[in-house]
Write a structure and sequence with these properties.
globular, alpha/beta, 4-stranded mixed beta sheet, single chain
């Protein structure tokens, strides 16, 4: 398609100047605060770890557990509590420059250091005339404010009490508390939910009055666990150039993981870090912003215990065991390859991992990522990048992801082709100054489109008959990560093994260059403290990654059907984006797959889904009895008779759309549903899949919604880290619940449904029900359990 790139650059520069003017207000100074001294009672009534922290786990960490914790107050560890709060938000889309990072355990060592970085104490303060420590504790005063102004049980919140993640934050210091309380009578803690019990409040009150003494979480592993830590640290710190490059590659791919030893019962979780100190000594982390930045000195890879309570949204598990180490050796160290000089940490090294790690066999790198493909997709989703609507606007609400077979992937098998395209696979975002936004974007967009054109020519020449189903990875007959379903929930996302939900509108086919680029763009090179330029570059390039995955999939579709399917994905304004941003679609090369007489978008997608299930039958798992059962027996094996009854009732929600069942339009993104009988209880998730005319833009989503086509996926168990609402329904009332849901035609009807079966933020059972959802995961998949985040819980 013809497009005037010079004019585009001029328009972009004008927009950039406007952006600079618009965000000029964003520059701010880091505030500094007093360093109050605490008076601690000689005799303590309560122990922090056993008596106080469980209250925070039950009522506070659901909001205060990550980078997006209000006022950066992280209550998941004693270190976070001692650090305190800051009015400077981590997620700020208007920053013109990168902000100084504020990572617990990395960017400051002492409480005094945190005061220099703009954090104030929430436990202690100095106040003239104060009678005891409770009057000088911001934390206690906020809890007391919540207790003094309780919300009516089971009521909807006042309309002026915002709970969305975009609400303005108030971070009152001790000096501001009186004015804050007057202006925000319902601004106490826990915020906009039912409060602490009398016993919990009394315990917190006594603990604060006695000096709010804290202790870090104890670390007391057994000999077997210590031996595993030592063994893995030895592996990561082997001498030799090859070993050093492999260790760097593994570290950059595992630094977000919660590592654990799955053969040891009760294993702690660990994170791999770079430390100035050698194994056997206390860990002193290297405080670079990104894992691939220059440490500027000798360092060691260490396994650092996770000393905080696990929250689900950052819990990305990865098992270490003997088989894993043997696999690493087989992939990376037993093969015959060599390296001269080790790569550095400069701009080129960080922006193009394909060049940086070129010496390591490409197929080994791809195989390594495929081994735990779901883990890597989860890093895209649970890492800091996936927060907020802008971060997820360029993916659809439900789609399947599969991978090119490593024996067919041209990049990992053809050295000449790999050398040709590697220079085109660099990634934007390493340069974060505002003036780099335009030049970086145009440069990397052009390279990406050139790469896609080269890829198309190479594959067409190599496979003139077109793509075959054997080109899709089947998990080698054992790996269930070969088939993944990704759900977007407006401002967050989730991934599950298997093909869940209805046949989607689009499917991604990822090869090694796409998988690795996505990981480096969204995880390794993403800086949560970065400027608006950095964040825009990251998300704009992710749009190209999605488009590339769709192009890959269309190779498996009959040539005469590709354009219609592509146009279905890029309707309305999507056509403009296609004309000015993406490369041309191949509508000539045939496909080496027998589609029979099927024609039309729906028929083509249905046929491919069946072929895909046939191709990967050994790893596909059981059919999705809840969402894709059309006739025949639809009962899950091994389910109890009562659970089969629940399945049958809920299955009726999965086959309508927004036109035939208007209730879908009013359903929150992620709804947890607890169904119980006298002896059993089951958990489901109702997922609202919103349909878009296109997902080619970061902004203006409302204008691209097609609510009449929205659907619901009924998922067994919990899905997502951020429930937007929940219902608690006895099995003998489930039929009535579904009937009432189907009868909803307006928002007030959804409120009535919540009145009868909903678990509102103000419900006396709210925290108990949230705890039971976590308990369900602990019972069914304990290694994955963590506290759910309720920052996005809606006011129905």
């Amino acid at each position: 398609m013809v497009f005037d790139s010079g004019r585009a650059r001029a328009i972009f520069r004008v927009g950039l100047i406007f952006l600079l003017a618009l965000f000029a207000f964003a520059c701010s100074q880091v505030p500094t605060y007093e360093r109050p001294h605490s008076l601690v009672a000689a005799n303590q009534t309560y122990d922090f770890q056993t008596d106080i922290k469980p209250i925070f786990e039950a009522k506070c960490m659901a909001c205060h557990g990550c980078y997006d914790a209000p006022c950066q107050l992280k209550l998941t560890s004693s270190e976070g509590l001692l650090r305190g709060a800051s009015p400077l938000p981590v997620y700020a889309g208007s920053r013109l420059e990168d902000m100084a990072p504020t990572r617990l355990g990395i960017d400051a060592v002492t409480t005094s250091d945190w005061r220099d970085k703009g954090f104030f104490s929430v436990l202690h303060g100095d106040k003239e005339g104060a009678l005891d420590a409770r009057e000088t504790s911001v934390l206690f005063q906020m809890i007391a404010l919540g207790r003094e102004n309780p919300l009516p049980p089971n009521s909807r919140l006042p309309e002026d009490l915002r709970t969305d993640i975009g609400r303005p934050q108030s971070c009152p210091t001790l000096a501001d508390l009186e004015d804050y309380a007057e202006d925000n009578p319902h601004g106490g803690m826990p915020f906009a939910t039912t409060g602490l019990t009398d016993e919990e409040y009394a315990r917190i009150q006594t603990w604060v009055a006695e000096g709010a003494l804290t202790q870090p979480q104890p670390y007391d592993p057994g000999d077997a666990e210590l031996a595993q830590v030592a063994r893995w640290e030895t592996f990561f710190n082997q001498s030799g150039a090859r070993e050093a490059l492999v260790a760097r590659y593994l570290y950059e791919h595992l630094f977000t993981a919660h590592l654990y030893f799955d053969t040891l019962e009760g294993s702690r979780f660990y994170q791999i870090v770079r430390s100035w100190t050698a194994p056997g000594q206390p860990i002193l982390p290297v405080a670079t912003v990104r894992p691939n930045e220059d440490p500027e000195g000798r360092f060691y890879y260490r396994l650092q215990p996770v000393n905080s309570t696990i929250v689900e949204k950052t819990h990305i598990t990865y098992a270490l065991n003997d088989d894993r180490m043997a696999r690493y050796r087989s992939l990376f160290l037993d093969s015959d390859w060599s390296i001269g000089e080790l790569p550095g940490y400069g701009y080129k090294d960080r922006s193009n991992p394909f060049a940086t790690f070129d010496a390591i066999p490409a197929k080994a790198r791809y195989r390594f990522m495929l081994d735990t493909a779901q883990y890597f997709v989860r890093t895209f989703i649970r890492g800091p990048v996936c927060r907020g609507q802008i971060a997820t606007d360029v993916i659809r609400d439900q789609f399947w992801t599969v991978f090119e077979d490593p024996d067919h992937d041209a990049f990992v098998n053809d050295k000449a082709y790999r050398e040709q395209v590697t220079p085109l696979l660099g990634l934007p975002g390493v340069k974060s100054d505002i003036m780099a936004l335009g030049s970086e974007w145009f440069d990397y967009k052009a390279k990406r489109n050139e790469y896609l054109a080269d890829r198309q020519l190479h594959y067409n020449a190599r496979d003139p008959q077109g793509a075959a189903m054997s080109d899709i990875w089947d998990g080698d007959g054992t790996n269930t990560d070969a088939l993944l379903t990704i759900f977007r929930h407006h401002d967050s996302a989730s991934v599950r093994n298997g093909l869940l939900g209805r046949v989607p509108r689009t499917i991604w086919v990822m090869d090694y260059p796409l998988l690795e680029r996505t990981y480096y763009e969204l995880v390794v090179n993403f800086n949560v403290f970065g400027s608006v330029s950095h964040q825009a570059q990251t998300r704009l390039y992710f749009d190209l990654i999605r488009n590339g995955s769709e192009h890959n999939f269309l190779r498996f579709v009959p040539a005469d059907q590709r354009q219609a399917l592509y146009d279905h994905w890029y309707q309305d304004s999507g056509k403009i984006k296609d004309a000015i941003t993406y490369t041309d679609l191949d509508v000539a090369t045939p496909v080496d797959i027998d589609y029979g007489p099927q024609r039309g978008n729906t028929a083509v997608m249905d046929k491919f889904s069946q072929l895909l299930l046939d191709r990967a039958a050994a790893v596909a798992g059981p059919p999705d009895f809840l969402n894709r059962c059309f006739g025949g027996p639809c009962e899950r094996p091994n389910a109890s008779p009562l659970q089969k009854d629940a399945d049958a009732i809920l299955r009726g929600l999965a086959f309508d759309n927004g036109a035939t069942m208007p209730a879908i339009k009013f359903l929150p993104e992620v709804v947890f549903l607890r169904v119980s009988s006298e002896d059993e209880r089951w958990v489901y998730t109702l997922v609202h899949n919103r349909i878009h005319s296109n997902v080619a833009f970061m902004f203006g989503e409302d204008s691209r919604l097609l609510p009449e086509q929205d659907t619901v996926s009924v998922i067994d168990g919990t899905l997502g880290s951020y429930p937007n609402f929940s219902f608690d329904v006895p099995l003998n009332e489930l039929d009535a619940f579904v009937s009432a849901f189907k009868g909803i035609t307006r928002a007030s009807d959804m409120n009535a449904l919540a009145e009868r079966w909903g678990v509102r933020r103000t419900s006396p059972d709210f925290w108990d029900v949230m705890a039971d959802f976590r308990a369900f995961v602990e019972q069914t998949n304990p290694v994955e359990a963590g506290i759910f985040d309720v920052n996005r819980y809606e006011n129905l």
